[in-house]
Amino acid sequence: MIALQHYLIVSAALFSLGMLGILTRRNAVNVLMGVELVLNSANLNLVAFSRFGSGNLQGQLFAVFVIVIAAAEVAVALAIVLTLYRLRRTPNLDDADILRG
Amino acid sequence: MSAEAVVFYLFAAITVLSAAVVVLARSLIYCAFALLFTFFGVAGLYVLLGADFLAATQLLIYVGGILVLLLFGVMLTHKLYDLDLRSEVTQFPAGIIVAGGLFAILAATALRTRWATGAGRPPSATTAEIGKLFMTQYLLPFEAASILLLVALMGAAMIVRRKKDA
Question: All domains of chain B, ordered by start, with CATH?
Fold first, then answer.
């Protein structure tokens, strides 16, 4: 019998891996992939609690909003990464170390 | 093991292993394609949880939209003749310690807490119900999300646009 805890463990693993990606990658697009992993793990938790909790659909509705915000976030973040690449000729976040445009 | 358990472990393994590839692979293209399998695995877990609408949304938006956008990001931020798109890794030992500790804390919390699980929701079609909720109880957040998307896309276009005088 698959219980709530199974899904929570999978989600915890996904979150930790996403965090590892955010912490250790230098490429900005790769850091964004880590952010996507973290958002997916949060979504998995929401849907799992919606399934095993009180039985209403609120968790799934929240997950839809999370997906919407993830889409908006990726669009804006990629725009920033492209601008950074145009200015500094590098996709590495370490090289984005000036405060003027 | 029941059939449900077999399918769950299959999708969980796909999700976690391909997520590990996303984080650890050297080539950016490998990372992007592993991310595809992670999204598929999560969509499978949604189906197991009885969230059919969300599983379809996951495939449409994450695989069809966000992943393609990320691939464009990979392509546009490298020179075209760069055949191996490498991504460097920094402070890996410290990152492993932080991520491992985080996983230990989260897993211990998940296992030790007595979650207030209720009657649960038997698997049934959710699309019509979600649509009704969006049009009645959650109308304001729904409209706010649509404005957020519009503003984000306009903002993204503004940021990448080249200035005429520059």
Answer: 3-83+122-160 (1.20.120.1200)
Q: How confident is the model at residue A101 (pLDDT cuts 50, 70, 90)?
A: low
**Angstrom distance (rounded) from CA B124 to CA B96:** 40
Q: What structural domains and CATH numbers belong to chain A?
A: 4-95 (1.10.287.3510)
What 3-state class would DSSP assign to B120? Answer: coil
What residues contact B63, with CB distance under 8 A and at least 6 apart?
B36, B39, B40
Taking only the tens place, the pLDDT of each residue in B43-99 is: 999 999 988 999 999 999 998 889 998 888 888 887 656 666 677 788 889 999 999
Pick from B35, B45, B116: CB nearest A36:
B35
- B51 contacts in A (CB within 8 Å)? 47, 50-51, 60, 63
Q: Which two tokens stand for residue B124?
A: 């049934």
Percent helix, percent strand, percent coil in chain A, to nearest 5: 80, 5, 20
CB < 8 Å from A in window 104-163 of B:
106-107, 110-111, 115-121, 126, 129-130, 133-134, 138, 141, 145, 148-149, 152-153, 155-157, 159-160
**What residues 44-73 of chain A have any CB closer than 8 A to a CB of chain B?**
44, 47-48, 50-57, 60-61, 63-65, 67-73
Q: What are the Cα distances from residue A91, in Å, to A51, A78, B26, B39, B40? A: 40, 11, 15, 24, 27
Average pLDDT of A72-77? 92
Query: Are residues A24 and B91 in contact, defined by beta-carbon separation less than 8 angstroms?
Result: yes
CB atoms B23 and A20 under 8 Å: yes
| Cα first-last separation, chain A | 56
